[in-house]
Amino acid sequence: MDNNNNIFNDRQNYQPQQAPDPQQQYQPQYQQPYQQPYQQPQYQQPVYQQPPYQQPYQQPQYQQPVYQPPYQQPVYQQPVYQQPGAPQKPVRPIDLLPPEERSARKKKANTLCIISLFLHFSPFVLVGILEGILESLETGFTGMSTAPAIVQILGYIGGGAYIASWVFMIIARAKYSESVFAKVLMWVYLGILSIGIIGTLILIYMCAIMINGCH
Amino acid sequence: MTINIPEFEHSPYALIVIASVLIGFLAAGLLMRRFGVAKKTILYTSLLTLICTLVISFMAAFEFTGNGLVLGFSGLGAVVGMALGILISGLIFKDKAEYVLASFAASAPLMYALSKTGCLLAGCCHGKPYSGPFAIVNHGIHSGSFFPAQLVDMTVFIIIHIIALILVLKMKNKVKAVYILIAIALPARFAVEYLRYTNTGILDMGQIKILIAGAISISIVVLWKKLLKINYR
């Protein structure tokens, strides 16, 4: 029986291993030197380190000493109550002008008003002249042929002067609204106009009564 | 059917004419307020235009004859006076002048139509003799049966006033609206003149006066437009 378990069985097969010949074994292998692949040099940005933050120099601020007024006993002031609805006087643009300009404006307004006043009353003077012409007609001083034309022309001049007087007054009111003269003139003219209209109406009614009375 | 006008002890003519002028000015003022014209401009323009209207209307009727002075108010003179008043105040204020003109132009036909009530009651400006329907029978100085010329005048000018209001409120170009208004009102007034008892022919003195007043008014409007440099694109 073949006992393979015998540990000496291996001796038969045992062939001592020869030590390798160093000459044979040593075969220097020529190896190409390792070349690393070309790599482009990477530019690295320099990192600048910021200098440590330094607070700017601050001048020492001078602090004024707090003035404390001496204690005063409070004086009781009566509160001013504004009347409800009482208009506050507004500041007009004219008040802001220098006094020289204001007086110049006043002068111009007065000139306009005086021209207006002269023109307003000139028709009354013309009516006087007209009456004189009519009287002279009765006495036969002026010829009948020229009188109607003169009366007509005087009527037109009077009417034109009356309109011009209103125009000058309104220019003064519009451009120099602060002028008191112009304001007074306007109310005087309006008064004369209303009296004239009422007077004319009364005259018409009186004439009608007289005519009816004649019947 | 006839319309009988009673004889008045005191003629209401003057009162009605003054009242119609004031109502017309009030209407013009309201229109100006609607257009946003300043209060100061409205006040002084109305005042100056009123003076010009009254004075020129008076001057146009003012006549000196061998029998004495003839005094009264002329409607055509009033139109010229109104145009002159608007021109002068436009030059003084230069504040929305085209709106001021349009407002007065729209209210002028109303003034004229209302003042015709005075004529109707006083019996003046009456029509030619007529006895058909709607004949006006007057008593007193102008006694007789006449064609209702004053009623036709009133109706025509009330219609013109309504057209004027529409034109002035709807049209952007106010000057053009005024020109259209003159183009309507002038021929209408010219045609109505044929119905009056004073008419003697196709082109009598009354119609020549209308043409002269119309020409003066148009010239004033053209002059006003040039002086105030009002241009519409």
| Number of helical regions of chain A | 5
Beta-strand proportion of chain A: under 5%
- Pair of chains with the largest interface and how many residues each contributes: A-B, 25 and 27 residues
> Mean pLDDT score of chain A, rounded?
72
Strand element count of chain B? 5
Please indicate the percent range of residues of chain B in DSSP E strands (runs of 2 or more).
5-15%
Give the N-terminus to C-terminus distance of chain A in angstroms: 193 Å
Nearest-integer average pLDDT of chain B: 87
Low-pLDDT stretches of chain B: none
Spatial shape of chain A: elongated
What composes the largest sheet of chain B? 3 strands, mixed
Structural class designation of chain B: mainly alpha
* Head-to-tail CA distance between termini of chain B: 54 Å
**Helix-strand pattern of chain A:** HHHHH
Give the overall silhouette of chain B: globular
Instruction: Summarize the main sheet of chain A.
Output: none
Give the fraction of residues assigned to helices of chain A: 40-55%
Spatial arrangement of strands, main beta sheet of chain B: 1-4-5
Can you describe this structure?
By secondary structure, chain A is mostly helical. Chain A has a domain at 96-214. Chain A is 53% helix and 0% strand. In chain A, helix 3 (99-139) packs antiparallel against helix 4. The termini of chain A are far apart. Chain B is mainly alpha-helical and 233 residues long. In chain B, 66% of the residues lie in helices and 7% in strands. Chain B contains seven helices and five strands; from the N terminus they run E-H-H-E-E-H-H-E-E-H-H-H. Chain B has helices at 13-34, 39-61, 75-93, 97-122, 149-170, 174-192, 205-227; strands at 2-4, 63-65, 68-70, 135-138, 144-146. Chain B has a three-stranded mixed sheet, with no helix packed on it. Chain B has a two-stranded antiparallel sheet with strand order 2-3. The mean pLDDT of chain B is 87. Chain A binds chain B through residues 144, 147-148, 151-152, 155-156, 159, 162-163, 166-167, 170-171, 173-174, 193, 197, 200-201, 204-205, 208-209, 212, and chain B through 9-11, 14-15, 18, 40, 44, 47-48, 51-52, 55-56, 58-59, 62-66, 69, 84, 88-89, 92-93.
